[in-house]
User: Which sequence fits this backbone?
């Protein structure tokens, strides 16, 4: 039995737009709820959310029966954490703060087994192989791993074309908050200079045959990224969805002081 087909990777390769959302609570139950919403993909955020490998695993389990593809964002581009999330069953990884082609090439290698990569061969007893029941996992896993790299500062943008030339990358995610802050605009991704740089980056990513991705947290920004051609587009963050809805509900029913 081979590794499961990564439908998200397949959709990106076919040029289909994939709509997603951030999952930042770090809890399996909220991930399971988000998995019923109809998104194509959900980010299990290991960078800014309170996650460790056990909570990431639990959320992967919670999404196992959902048609939504889990995208695990690791906290940093290190081989050891990539190995752990892949063995936990992730088939799509998102790596923050990628700045050079050399770094990108090492990340691709970290996602692949030898002789083409450096991923440790320990999946036989791991969730990735359904604890040994996916008998051809090691032979077939590489082809189903979707590798998404985040370019989110000026150095990464300067090296974008070289990063895009690295074989094995499926998509590039532009981080608007980090990029705008690195440009001196303190998280203001709506600044015209930031918007122009992002539009150019998306155009270059598409021209290289890769999928461009980004996150919008307002209707205006999400519409802008959509019009620029973002292919894997995150349209919200679960924590913001809850907090905004709760505050609006309270404001509707709480008597004015």
Assistant:
């Amino acid at each position: 039995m081979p590794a499961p087909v990564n439908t998200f990777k397949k959709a990106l390769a076919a040029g289909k737009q994939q709509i997603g959302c951030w999952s930042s609570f770090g809890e399996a139950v909220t991930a399971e709820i988000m998995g019923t919403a109809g998104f194509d993909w959900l980010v299990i955020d290991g960078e800014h959310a309170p996650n460790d490998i056990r909570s990431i695993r639990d959320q992967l389990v919670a999404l196992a029966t959902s048609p939504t593809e889990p995208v695990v964002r690791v906290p940093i581009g290190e081989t050891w954490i990539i190995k752990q999330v892949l063995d936990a069953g992730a088939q799509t990884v998102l790596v923050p703060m990628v700045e050079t082609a050399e770094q990108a090439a090492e990340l691709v290698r970290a996602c692949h087994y030898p002789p083409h990569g450096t991923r440790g061969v320990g999946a036989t007893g791991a969730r990735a192989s359904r604890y040994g029941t996916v008998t051809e996992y090691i032979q077939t896993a590489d082809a189903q791993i979707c590798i998404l790299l985040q370019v989110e500062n000026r150095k990464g943008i300067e090296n974008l074309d070289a990063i895009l030339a690295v074989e094995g990358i499926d998509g590039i995610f532009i981080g608007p908050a980090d990029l705008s802050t690195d440009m001196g605009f303190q998280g203001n991704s709506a600044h015209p200079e930031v918007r122009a740089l992002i539009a150019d980056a998306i155009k270059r990513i598409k021209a290289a045959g890769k999928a461009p991705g980004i996150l919008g947290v307002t209707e205006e920004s999400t519409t802008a990224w959509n019009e620029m051609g973002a292919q894997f587009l995150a349209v919200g963050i679960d924590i913001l969805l809850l907090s905004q809805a709760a505050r609006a509900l309270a404001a509707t029913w709480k008597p004015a002081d």
Summary: The chain has a mean pLDDT of 97. The chain has one domain: 7-250. The two ends are 65 Å apart (CA to CA).
